[in-house]
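Sorry, I am new here, but would you mind making up a protein's amino acid sequence and the tokens describing how it folds?
***
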Amino acid sequence: MRSTFTGIEISKRALFTQQAALTTTGHNISNANTPGYSRQVVNMVASRPLEYPGMMRSNVPGQMGQGVEFTSITRIREKFLDDQFRNENKQFGNYSIQNDTLDKLQAIVNEPTDTGIRSVLDKFWKSWTDLAKDPENVSGRKLVRESANALADAFNATSKQLSDLSNDLTSNIDVKANQINSLTSTISSLNNEIFRIEGLGDHANDLRDQRDLLTDQLSKIVNISVVETPQGYTINMGNTNLVTGQDETAVTAATLATAMNSGDLNSGEVYGMIVSRDRYVVDYQQQLDTLANSIANGQVQITIPAGSVIPDGSVLMVPTNNPTGPAYTPVTYSGPVANRTLASDLTVMVQGINGLHKLGYTFATPAAKGVDFFTAKTGATVTAATFQLNPVIANDPNTIATSMRTTGTAPNETAVKGNNTLALLISQIKDSKFTFNNGGTTNGAPSIMNGTLDDYFRSIVGQLGVQAQTTSRQTDNQKAMVDQIEDRRQSVSGVSLDEEMSNMIKFQHAYGAASRFMTTFDQVLDRLINNTGVVGR
């Protein structure tokens, strides 16, 4: 005889299973906006059926079903998409940092504008042109002095901004190292918790979501490879291990730099920071230093007009016109004025404005040759950071040399104050071709080595613009790739409220039907127990 309580047991199993499904649906809806959450499903299976009850084996085909059970609650996740996302995310982190750095470099260089170095440099040349019109004008000399100070301030300020940007990137590398350690520590702790919980036979779905979210964040900072083992995630950065089960390896800025040199670190935000600091910022600092030093001391060829009087003891580098020997040979001018007066135009190589300025005379009596126009604040080499107007000239604009003619003889030799030869030569030097001995490099490509100062500065600005445009395009393309993979991942793992609402209605009706089924069997048993066997009472 069949059991009269089978129906109640089937109803009970159905109620428990549909209640679990409703609870899981509510959990999904609650976490619809939780970052990294993967939707969960209740896996239902039919209970093991039984042979139709009887005193002997029945010939009735089939077996008696025993309702439904749920075997597990699992999350919907596709590992292939996770690996794709992390591989693309590391490149996005790299390009985004480089793009941000180049944007800042463009703001520092600030060209083309009316307030950048180019504008200040133009005003400096113009002040010399104005002085050449009236070399005895004190106001013109002060204008040259102030425009030279403005040029020095522009170089100093730009150099400091580049230095500050480099220091910021270094500080951010330290911050990222601490962030890596925090993430790896948390991931190793989650490995331990997941191992403990799943060792009891449960599925640690929510903890796995947290671990995957942290791993995604780590993938943007440095390049990682993830392997899941029974002890949890094993995470490596190239050949450098970061996490193995419950153990993590702390990193520092120094270990990250070592990893980059060895090739273990090849993408991610930290890689972008190191590249930005050691390649872009260093290169533009070097090129700015070269520009500043070239203005002061760069090799440039000029033509001194006939009739000019070379200061006593000056050494001029005169072309040899010898293709097999040195390009220039030193010629010393000394002795009486007649010996130092040029009978014809003479082409020579001078060392920037400083070398040219020392070929002229100030208004001092007796005649005194000019001093270095620009000097270094510290050290012997003029850089953008140390570039300054000679304090002698800054304190007394009358020490600015403009004349290249003298009258009289030693010791009463005096400068011709109305002569403007040197002022004209300096104002025209901007159109002369310099030799840039330290042109600077970007990504291994040499900058220009010969050209005017304007050519060199335009090459800096143009190079920066192209690099910024390139990294901006790469960043946009990589972001589109990351977003596309994330959309695909969300289509698999994300919570759809419409789907969850339809599931809730389905599970709700199934729960109500199971309840009704139990009520029906309750009525059957009530009739059987309370209303049968009463005949003859």
